[in-house]
Each structure stands twice: as structure tokens, then as C-alpha cells.
Amino acid sequence: MAVISKKICLLGDFSVGKTSLIRRFIEGKFSDQYLTTVGVKISRKSLKLDALEQTINFILWDIEGQTKFQSITPSYLQGSTGVIIVGDLTRPETLSSLQKHLELFLQINPQGIAVVALNKTDLVAPEKLSKLLEQYSFSNQTEVLASYGTSAKSGNCVNEMFQQLAQSILA
User: Fold this and answer.
1) What is the model's pTM?
2) Is the pLDDT of residue 143 over 80?
3) What superfamily in CATH does domain 2-170 come from?
């Protein structure tokens, strides 16, 4: 079985849940304790895709979301195959930034694959949630593979999102 390594970046404003999504994916755990990422934190996880008879080693770059460091963010994005752009459904200003993060990633990696994670679904009322997921679906943008309503706390759609990204990269 072939093994392929791919760099995946997580981008988004501060405190949207990038680190928590990675922790949920890698360890299957969640913590309410907020830890600020300074610069970049790199994690790894292998996914075995039986249908394709391949294993993908994700090298996950958790890029901090503080605006004061945005000038160095482009250097972190170089060489990335994919990106997960994360917004916090409880903070509209972070959803307004999704397009900006997508454009930055695609400017540096025009052939890259993007996924949008609309995080913290567990904190939004169901009737409001469906409207937000539809509004920020990015369905009209071919560069975006899919949008997911995720919850690092409950694990909702986290594994599915990474699985879809892996399958698309290897296809």
C-alpha cells in the first residue's frame, strides 16, 4: 500500500477552533481550555483509505489567527496541498473573513484544494444553523471542495471532513 505525505493548513481568525478540530481529529478529544497558537503548530496523522489502497500522511499546520502576524502567514502556506478554512458560527465577523482566507491560500497555492469548516454547530440553534450553513456553503466556488458544519466538541463532521479531503487529494 502506497504512502503519500501532504501538507494541509488550517486557516481562520483567532479562537474559531482550528486547534480543537485538529485535536478532535488526531486524539478524538476536546478541551474547553483555550490555548492560543503562536506562529504555527505542526501535527501529523495517517489515514488509510482502503478503497484507494493508499495511506495519506497528513502534516497539519495549525496557523495562528492573530492579525498582527498576518505578514508571515503566506510563508507558512507555501507548499500546501490543501486548506481547511475555519469560521466560528457564533461570531459573524469570523464568517466574513472566510473569503479573505480562501483568497490568500489560493493566491499562494492556485492548484490547492479548499474545505470550509463552519465550526461550533453545537452552540447554534437548529433553525439558525441551517440558514448559516446555507449562507456560507461556498457552493458557487469551484475551488471549494465542500463546506461542513463541524463541532470539535461533539466531533460532528470532523472525521468526514478530513476523509473527504484525503480522498480528493488522492483522486
Assistant:
1) 0.91
2) yes
3) P-loop containing nucleotide triphosphate hydrolases (3.40.50.300)
CB 13 within 8 A of CB 73: no
131: which 3 cell numbers? 440558514
**What is the end-to-end Cα distance of the chain in Å, rounded?**
15
Q: What is the CA radius of gyration of the chain?
A: 15
Residues 81, 7 contacting (CB under 8 angstroms):
yes
17 CB-near residues (< 8 Å, 6+ apart): 86, 88, 117, 119, 120, 150, 152
What is the distance between the alpha carbons of residues 120 and 171, in angstroms, rounded to a whole number?
30
Which pLDDT tens digit goes with each residue over 86-112? 999 999 999 999 999 999 999 999 999
Q: What's the rounded Cα separation, in Å, for the pair 150 and 55?
A: 24
